[in-house]
Every structure is written in structure tokens, then in C-alpha cells.
Amino acid sequence: MSNLGVPELLIIALVLVLLFGAKKLPEMARGVGRSLRIFKSETAKLREDDDETHTVQAQAQPAPAQPQPQPAQPQPQPIQAPPALSVEEQARQLEEQAAKLRASAAQADKHA
Asked: At the N or C end, where does the chain have fewer CB atoms within 10 A?
């Protein structure tokens, strides 16, 4: 029942063109492509971060030859780097900086 043939796909394509219009479909496809590309890169970064933490933990916990009593000292927490900004956050920050620069340039022009 779930086999879609050529006629069914053509009908679906026709309905999409009628609903959204021929101009909007390429824009929507580009937006979906960008979103998928960003999602893929972020998931790859998460996997890399997970792999790094597993290797760091494996290196930090060598097997001792003989069990030794350890003093009751609190374990130092690993210093975590600030999270990297996503492309959207970087773009937003740049837009904010540009708006501030335009506002200061406008004030300078008023005073000049």
C-alpha cells in the first residue's frame, strides 16, 4: 500500500505547486537544505565532543597496579571551554554590532 509510483508523485508535486506556488518551492528547498546541513554539522560536533570526553576519561583513569588508599579530597572539576557559537548566533551578533556602528555613525553625522 505504501508504494508510490510515478503518477502519485506527479500528483503530489502538482498539489505542492498549487499550494505554495512555483516561486516559493526553490526557496523552501534551499531553506530545508541549509537546515539539514547545519543539523548534520552540529550532530557531527556533538559526536566529536563525546569521543573526546570518552578518550579523556579513559586516559585519566589508568588501572592502578595495587589499590592504594586515597585521601578524601574533592576532585577538581575539568575546566570546560565556553560553547562554540552556532552560525546563526554569530550572524545575530554581527548584525547587532553592525546596528551599533550604524547608530554611532548616525550620531557622529548629526554632531558634525
From this structure: N
Look at the block and give the residue holding cell 531553506: 31
List C-alpha distances in Å: 104 to 4, 9, 93, 96, 108: 59, 55, 17, 12, 6
Query: How is 24-73 classified by DSSP, letter by letter?
Result: HHHHHHHHHHHHHHHHHHHHHHHHHHHHHHHHHHHHH-PPPSS-------
Question: Pick from 93, 75, 74: which is nearest to 85 by CA?
Answer: 93
- How far does Cα 77 stand from its chain's mean position? 26
Return the H-helix or E-strand segment holding 16. Answer: helix 6-20
pTM, to two decimals: 0.37
pLDDT, tens digit, for every residue of 39-64?
Answer: 999 999 988 888 877 776 666 665 55
Measure the CA–CA gap between 61 and 54, rounded to whole angstroms: 11
